[in-house]
Amino acid sequence: MGEDGGGNGSGGGGHGGASGGAGVAHAGNGEVGAPHAPAGGHGGEKGHGNNTDNGGNYSTEITRPVSPPSRGTETPNPFSRKNTSLDLDDYFSGPRDISKHSKWPLFLQLHGSITPKMIVPLLAIGAWATLITVLSKEFYHIELSIEPVLLTITGFVVSMGLSLRSSTAYERYAEGRRCWSQLILASQSLGRVFWVHAIERPETAKEDLLGKLYVSHFHKLAMAWRRLTAMNLVIAYAVALKHKLRFEPYTHYEDLVDLVGHIDTLAKEATADEEVQKARSKKYTIFKAVGENLGLSFATSNPRKQLKRVKKPVGNLPLEILCYLTAYADELVANGQLPVGMQQTTVYNNLGLLNDVLVNTERVLNTPLPIAYAIVISQITWLYVVLLPFQLYASLDWITIPATIFASYIILGIFFIGHEIENPFGNDVNDLPLDSFCQQIVDDMETISSRTKITTQELVQNSRNKVLFPYSNSSYYSWVAQPEGAIRTALRNRPNAYFEKAGAPSTASGPDNV
């Protein structure tokens, strides 16, 4: 992590410059620079290898999985994913990138549409409608048309079933989004408390005598590393929760391994198992890829298969990380680093909120629509679609074929959408973008830790602080030289500045500068 030169930092902040390490470097005044991606951003020319920091040897080498994650078995690393145009795999799978913009009209957009998964069902329905129409048209002794009254009766039942399916699916989707909003809120609050409110303990008299500058510098770094570690655990909690909700119980995933590699967890022990290494090297066949993109149920892998194949207990990784965060909070309180009761309350309330998020997301994941409802809704929907050609032929003749396809597209489209968003945490295009949520938490933690705690004096006594803007563009130092009466007069006149800018009549006016 770069050489520690006593009271002077050796890096250039941020990425570590020419002599920085991985992820964090010392600033010129001995403070700690901003952290980067949790997987560790390498520094400059000397950022690789072993560097010396206060007499100890630390390796900056970043470990990675033995083989890259394969599609359908593991979530790819969002922190290393380039924001470029969509490839074929991204187009039909993976949560949609909400940062991308399409100029196509909504009714012509294919990415995010349920259409690819309806190609095979619509072809089957079209073939069925063609068969019924040809038999009724060419073979006059075969009368297959029926009265359309059945269309009205069954249509009402199907609409009720699809309404139930869609409403429950969207409710689960919205509940999942609320849970991740709470997670982001709790992460931001914990990051602020750990970085801003947690005070550094004062040095002892003996340390002052031996060398206050060096000891103070080392102590600040030690405290900063601990705070950064705690903030990284907040990130690790979010990433671990994402993998847990996608039934990925191990720790070897590229966006998680470097965040939890230093803590002792059951998932870490299970990851070392040989069977896990073999599972990671399995290939993903073209048949399965095409089948999943087309929505073929027999080609879709069981999302829980990794959980069923575990040889050792995998535990509950987010809960274990939460225990480490709680232990860190207890230490902050016991050491007097959070002296204000409200700060302590904020920490424990937000840790409780993280636990609440874990339980609620598991509830959404493990409580789908009762299977009896799901089966009967599927049956009556397909029965209605299959009976359409018989009821439409008498009125539409050859138009029965395209009419059946169009009607099936509408009905099956609503049915398929409800099935896709029922589990909002998966890897379908319309699922919640959990990778983006985790990246947002990473960005928030980096933003919070990019600056040291500022004092009120530094905030106020600044030449660019226009204390009476927009009434006056003068800085703090210009106004502090004025008598108190002039300041109070300006405060009385300041409300009129808005009316003056809008062209409204004013009873008083103030100077642009003092």
Please, how many domains? 3
Query: How many helix segments?
Result: 18
Q: Overall pLDDT, averaged?
A: 75
User: Helices and strands: which structural class?
Assistant: mainly alpha
Radius of gyration: 31 Å
End-to-end Cα distance = 50 Å
The protein's oligomeric status is single chain
The helix/strand order is EEHHHHHHHHHHHHHHHHHH
**Helical content band:** 40-55%
Helices and strands, with pairings:
Layout: E1 50-53, E2 56-59, H1 88-92, H2 119-138, H3 149-197, H4 205-245, H5 257-260, H6 266-271, H7 274-280, H8 286-293, H9 305-308, H10 317-334, H11 341-366, H12 371-396, H13 400-420, H14 434-449, H15 456-460, H16 476-480, H17 484-493, H18 496-501
Antiparallel strand pairs: 1-2
Helix pairs in contact: 2-12, 2-13, 3-4, 3-11, 3-12, 3-13, 3-14, 4-10, 4-14, 10-11, 12-13
Structural commentary:
The structure is a single chain. The model is unreliable at 1-73, 78-86 and 203-219 (pLDDT under 50). The two termini are 50 Å apart. A two-stranded antiparallel sheet has the order 1-2. 54% of the residues lie in helices and 2% in strands. The chain is mostly helical. The chain has 18 helices and 2 strands. Helix 3 packs parallel to helix 13 and helix 4 (205-245) packs antiparallel against helix 14. The protein folds into 3 domains: 1-62, no CATH class; 110-453, no CATH class; 461-501, no CATH class.
Keywords:
mainly alpha; two-stranded antiparallel ribbon; 18 helices; extended; 2 strands; disordered N terminus; 3 domains; 514 residues
How is this structure best summarized?
The protein is an all-alpha fold and 514 residues long. Helix content is 54%, strand content 2%.
